[in-house]
What we know:
Layout: H1 3-14, H2 18-91, H3 93-102, H4 131-134, E1 140-143, E2 146-149
Antiparallel strand pairs: 1-2
Amino acid sequence: MSITQDLRTRARHRGKTPWQLVKTIGRLEREADDNTCQMVAMATEIDTLTADRNRLAAQLDETVIAHQATIDELIEERDGLAAELAALKRRFAADIAIEANAYRIDVPQIGHRDTSAIEDQATTPIDVKPLWQALGIGTVTTVDTVTVIDNPNAADPANLPAA
Length: 163
């Protein structure tokens, strides 16, 4: 093994070779150029979009001013018509009242229904009784050696007969 070969081997073990470094530097320069081009393109696009925004904002301001003038005119017209309507109502109030009374509609009072017709007559009244009374159960009934006591206190254990 020669000394130059030994130096080359040590140089390769320490890092990249000069040729690899040149290739890496070239690649990084190309990437930097691409990034610079992208930044220039983005700056141009930002300028275009800013100009469009400014143009649209100016159009919006003009439109708002034009519509505000129309709105103000309509408000003045509405106020004038409201005042004119109020004056006409005061002038013709008596005529309006006479006409309303002349063409009134009478409605029967709600809550009273005529039930004199045969179809509106009630059928037999509904017989509502407690179940024990409807079945004819008396106060004390014996059913199969069990005594049933009709007493509200029957559920109390002190009132149960001894077994």
